[in-house]
Amino acid sequence: MNAVTAPLMAQFSAPAAGALDVERIRADFPILFNVHPHGKPLVFLDNAASSQMPQQVIDRLVRYQTHEHANIHRGVHTLSEIATDAYEHARGQVRKFLNAREDREIIFTTGTTEAINLVMQGYGRAFLGAGDEIVITWMEHHSNIVPWQMLCEQTGAILRVAPIDDRGELIVEAYQQLFNERTRFAAVTHVSNALGTINPVRELIAIAHRFNVPILIDGAQAVPHLPVDVQDLDCDFYCFSGHKLCGPTGSGALYGKAALLERMRPFKGGGDMILSVTFEKTTYNTIPYKFEAGTPPIAAMIGLGAAIEYVSAIGLDRIAQHEHELLGYATEQLARIPGVRIIGTAPQKAAVLSFYVGDVHPHDVGTLLNEEGVAVRTGHHCAQPVMQRFKVPATARASFAFYNTFDEVDVLAAAIRKVQKLFA
């Protein structure tokens, strides 16, 4: 442990015995036992990219496909009614999960990226123009940078970026100083996918609102790890992806305050997002349907509802506690390995640990860890500005879920030592 990681370690408590029955939970995830990379037990530490699905979610998907499959909203036959009820029930589960006021404030999307683009197109292109300013931060995922750059190119708006410090923590004072009479929108991540930093989003939202600026929160890395209450946060938009929450790929949601959604333009045109169509004029449907053109990924959204039901039954508070302890233990173990540099040492972090092993390229690290059965992510994590900030081309990233164990952290640490021996 060094002077950089010591303050970080001070925040972590010792593991709380019995907080979660992790072994029982692991039994719900068949992939953890059915896959053996290079003949080794799978240690899956790439949850920030996509978490695994429990059997309960898989079973719900199979049930829909084998007993309930039909198109929704337009049919009057039994299967269509059953599928529609299941789809809309999932919307209600998302509303409850985020504590939105109304189901109509929940728009189903294919994930966080589509949700951000929906807001960029539906709100940004409608209400922002030349000289207007958009505030983001240095730690954003590309999906919360590129759409706003596209908007600036199309409208003449200006992108302003709040800096981060050497620990990977947002400099809130600098963020606040970016707001002025020209600021028209803000978009910030709740949890950094590359650093694990938990942003003080309630404070960031309050700052934006002091300038009457609506703000979007990218919650892709937050909702799997932390309880989220959009009414308490008072955010204007909040989005997340289902595949990081033990749900299927192609599922996700955008929360938006009803008053804003009603003012916005539809992102896509097509079936089900209209009330009437003539060659002279189209009248759009009410929210949320005006933003859900065409046949949606019905099975994926039903699976998302099942995933929310699953993690809610375990409890986000208990999940957060277990992952907090797991991250603390992993931070301690890797900090004890000479030559390992941890990238991102903010005092408040979620279950992400990015690191650099001496002079070994992260891709080589990931390849060799895989030979030990350890799955981590390597690369720039769609956050190249973060890599530029810390002057590294990429990192190896271990990201944890509630089904990970302290023994798996030990396997990770031992595998890193093997990498060092090979390159010594």
The number of helices is 16
Characterize the main sheet: 7 strands, mixed
CATH superfamily of the largest domain: Type I PLP-dependent aspartate aminotransferase-like (Major domain)
User: Can you name the CATH architecture of the largest domain?
Assistant: 3-Layer(aba) Sandwich
Low-confidence stretches: 1-18
CATH topology of the largest domain: Aspartate Aminotransferase, domain 2
Helix content: 40-55%
As a whole number of angstroms, the C-alpha radius of gyration is 22 Å
Shape: globular
Structural domain count: 2
Written overview of the protein:
There is one protein chain. This protein has 424 residues and is α/β, with parallel strands linked by helices. It contains 16 helices and 15 strands. It folds into 2 domains: 139 residues, Aspartate Aminotransferase, domain 1, CATH 3.90.1150; 256 residues, Aspartate Aminotransferase, domain 2, CATH 3.40.640.10. The chain has a 7-stranded mixed beta sheet with strand order 2-8-7-6-5-3-4, sandwiched between helices. Strands 11-12-15-14 form a 4-stranded antiparallel beta sheet, covered by helices on one side. α4 packs antiparallel against α12. The protein is globular. The N terminus is likely disordered.
